[in-house]
Amino acid sequence: MNKLIMNFLVTEGYVDAAEKFRLESGTEPDIDLATITDRMAVKMAVQSGNVQDAIEKINDLNPEILDTNPELYFHLQQQKLIELIRMGKIEEALEFAQDELAPRGEENPAFLEEIEKTVALLAFDDVKNSPYGGLLDMSQRMKTASEVNAAILTSQSHEKDPKLPSLLKMLIWAQNQLDEKAVYPRINDLSTAKLEEPAV
């Protein structure tokens, strides 16, 4: 159980909690805790809209991450374009789209569709309420930050998703399957994990 908790803390980037948990439980993480701080700095840069800083930090961590993952690099560049549009730097956004993103769209049709949606934001006076205004939502930054986080974890030979949520989902699924076939002590409150006897 301690290893599952440590895995969750490390994967999600809770470095202070992981360090305290390591001291209290004696459970050693399977990754250097210092790398968590670096990974979270990259994630925070993306979430705050500072994409160029995030790219530089990724390259400082491991330059091969972006070299070997063209889709991630494209999504970072797309996010950079979104940030330029958000700041109202229209000319700079058009130039960036033409110089940096258009060549990638020629290489990959899926990228081209995403470029078109992003550049379409420029056609609207009220960008946030346009058909593609969702690209300006915080959820778009979070999506890109999660993709970056997963790529860094993979480059460090660590799972990109914590195991604990998956195990809880499997527990719920197994209980739902059993409900149809048997009467058994069940965990109704996942926070306490207390087994409750079935009503007779």
UniProtKB/TrEMBL annotation:
It comes from the Eukaryota. Residues 35-92 form the CTLH domain. PROSITE patterns: CTLH, LISH. InterPro entries: CRA_dom (IPR013144), CTLH/CRA (IPR024964), CTLH_C (IPR006595), LisH (IPR006594), Ubq-SigPath_Reg (IPR050618). Pfam families: CTLH (PF10607), LisH (PF08513). This is CTLH domain-containing protein. It comes from Rhynchospora tenuis.
